[in-house]
Specification:
With 621 residues, the chain is mainly alpha-helical. The chain contains 28 helices and six strands. It has helices at residues 2-40, 46-56, 71-80, 85-102, 107-110, 124-131, 141-149, 156-167, 174-201, 210-222, 225-232, 237-256, 265-275, 281-298, 302-322, 325-331, 334-344, 350-366, 369-395, 403-413, 422-426, 429-452, 462-480, 487-504, 515-524, 543-546, 557-561, 585-594, and strands at 122-123, 530-533, 551-555, 575-579, 597-604, 614-620. It has a six-stranded mixed sheet.
Length: 621
């Protein structure tokens, strides 16, 4: 008896190990592929470096050339920070008491920063402090909160990036931000696994295809151009994607298991965390909430509806209470008013924006627009053929030879609880609700983003890359279920093939390969100062370089032409001049000559630079 029990235990454990081994292999495959791309990343988009600054520049959210140290940053350095932790706490308590007692007349609010009439030289060490965390400002989340309140984004992603920077101090490297994105993508994959099993259990996916569909969704997403771009861009969109997927999974699970009237704490937490990550989360969140409320009302699950509405209201209260600046960000900030203005334009130019975002979606999910169209057409044709085959089997007379076995096989592979086509599964109420909960929020998110996004770039639709993979995998499961017993293997092979094509044909976006050579120039001339001629805020692209030069002067062309302070321009060894592409070259060289600076050598041409920069070695004559 003991041997039999032991044998039965081993027999049950074997398939379970194999099941989780397949999921683990998918996670490892995705993680390794993404890490390989991160290892190739050499430079940053200016918004990525802004992410590092907002996360790590202690109480100094913006680099201002005429005020390199902000008012609050100066106050903290000179009045708060003490020789010990106890002294710092004491100074902080004294400041709080002073503000409460004297308010506008308090020492803090009367404090003034050093503001100069012209841009001043900023040392390489100061730029290093802007971007990295040192021993004195590690895990300073109040600083992150203060910095972000003046931005147009909520604080969660910046706090996560600050945490990574606090573990790897005095360092700025792609892995610090990209690792957060990779973990978010792997979290999405685990949600796919759980969702596949859930849908199979409730008969929405064919029997035996739930786990395979989850694995395929993870491969289709993690190995897609969209997944790679999400991992590489050090912004909040990877984390937002995870919270959208988790939010969706929790809704589906609670809908299918009638669980909205209990244990909603996790749902509330995910809702609030998504809101604290990116405001575009609201597009998906609110649409899915409306769909869910409508489904609950239509099913007369009124008690669940009441508790669900209460839970969502509580999540909104928590989200706004923890970050009240969100109201101004959404309604009154520059980005917020721009988005509302775009929405107010109605259909003006809307077709072009839809086409642009549709192209981005197809390229990131399938590699190209033609490939996307071909895959979708093949999928639609396959589903149509399966549907016709099912109808033919069901219409066959029972006495005809082969009809009964065919019908038996159809009963095993078709219908809501096995491998039937999508049309038949949609007849089931749970299946209809699931597809409505999946497709409606994704469609609304796409339509709203295409109208309101400030730029026509892929970052704003990054959550849709995960849902596109999910839709493709779940539809594919219905199609390949008709190919039993080889259907699962064909489904998995198709996902791997498409993933391999996407990985090998990725366009290199967000890698900024070639910027490493520009950093080598900065290392070679690190003993010289640098003048950066820019237009607007373009100098953020080059913050990594500025940490290497002894000091840098940030100037617009008019500021150079009208500069009165000549100190620092007369350098015997020369000066590096970095000209951004927006600055007209002839005017820039004339302004330099006006101050006695002549170009001795062009170190880096505009054609060589990933940012279009030109770098000169200038000497004073």
């Amino acid at each position: 008896m003991g041997k039999n029990q032991s044998g039965n235990g081993i027999g049950k454990t074997g398939p379970r190990i194999r099941e989780y081994a397949a999921q683990a292999a998918a996670l490892i495959c995705v993680a390794v592929a993404l890490c390989c791309f991160v290892a190739q990343k050499e430079g940053y988009h200016m918004d990525e470096l802004l992410s590092f600054e907002l996360s790590n520049a202690e109480f100094n959210p913006w680099i201002v050339p005429t005020q390199p140290v902000g008012r609050l940053a100066k106050y903290v350095q000179e009045e708060i920070r003490g020789a010990s932790f106890g002294e710092t706490l004491s100074n902080l308590a004294d400041t709080a008491q002073d503000v409460l007692a004297n308010r506008g007349a308090s020492r803090l609010l009367q404090y003034r920063a050093d503001v100069y009439p012209e841009p001043v030289w900023i040392s390489g060490e100061q730029f290093q402090e802007y971007l990295t965390v040192g021993k004195d400002d590690a895990f300073s989340y109040l600083s992150v909160y203060f910095n972000v309140k003046d931005d147009n984004h909520p604080p969660l992603h910046f706090m996560l990036l600050h945490t990574m920077s606090s573990f790897f101090r005095n360092t700025i490297a792609p892995f610090q931000g990209c690792s957060i994105n990779i973990l978010a993508i792997l979290g999405c994959c685990m949600c796919f696994f759980a969702l596949g099993a859930l849908l199979e259990r409730h008969g929405i996916l064919p029997r035996g295809y739930g786990k395979t569909a989850g694995i395929c969704a993870s491969l289709l997403y993690g190995l897609s151009g969209g997944g790679i771009a999400t991992a590489l861009l050090i912004r909040m969109y990877g984390v937002m994607t995870f919270f959208c997927v988790a939010y969706f999974y929790l809704h589906v699970k609670k809908w299918l298991e009638k669980g909205f009237e209990r244990k909603n704490k996790l749902l509330i937490a995910v809702t609030a965390l998504g809101f604290w990550t990116q405001y575009f989360f609201l597009f998906f969140c609110l649409t899915l909430a409306l769909v869910t409320a409508g489904l609950l009302a239509g099913s007369r699950r009124y008690r669940e509806l009441k508790i669900y509405i209460r839970s969502m209201f509580l999540a909104a209260v928590i989200g706004v209470a923890a970050f009240p600046f969100a109201i101004q960000d959404v309604l009154a900030s520059g980005r917020g008013t721009e988005a509302l203005r775009n929405l107010g334009r109605g259909f003006s130019g809307y077709g072009a924006r839809l086409a642009a975002f549709g192209t981005l979606l197809s390229e990131r999910c399938f590699g190209s627009v033609p490939a996307g169209i071909l895959i979708l057409l093949c999928l639609a044709a396959g589903l149509l053929l399966v549907r016709r085959k099912r109808r033919g089997l069901e219409a066959a007379p029972a006495g005809v030879s082969g009809a009964a076995p065919g019908g038996a096989e159809a009963a095993q592979t078709g219908g809501p609880k096995s491998g039937g086509d999508f049309a038949e599964a949609s007849a089931d109420r749970g299946s209809r609700a699931f597809w409505l909960m999946l497709l409606a929020p994704c469609g609304c998110y796409f339509l709203l983003t295409a109208r309101m996004a400030p730029y026509l770039v892929d970052r704003y639709i990054m959550p849709l890359f995960a849902f596109a993979a999910m839709i493709l995998a779940f539809f594919g499961a219905r199609l390949f279920a008709a190919l039993k017993p080889c259907g699962k293997y064909f489904l998995l092979a198709s996902a791997l093939l498409l993933g391999a094509v996407n990985v090998t044909t990725y366009d290199g976006e967000y890698l900024y390969q070639g910027y490493g050579r520009q950093l080598e120039v900065a290392d070679q001339y690190q003993n010289l100062p640098c003048i950066c001629l820019y237009d607007g805020v373009g100098y953020y692209d080059n913050l990594s370089e500025f940490t290497r030069y002894t000091e840098t002067l940030l100037l617009t062309l008019p500021e150079l032409e009208n500069r009165q302070d000549k100190a620092g321009l007369e350098r015997e060894d020369g000066i590096i001049v970095l000209k951004k592409p927006e600055v007209e070259e002839e005017s820039a060289l004339a302004a330099l000559e006006q101050h006695g600076l002549k170009v001795e050598k062009v170190l880096f041409s505009e054609e060589e630079s990933v940012h279009g920069d030109t770098i000169y070695l200038c000497v004073f004559s």
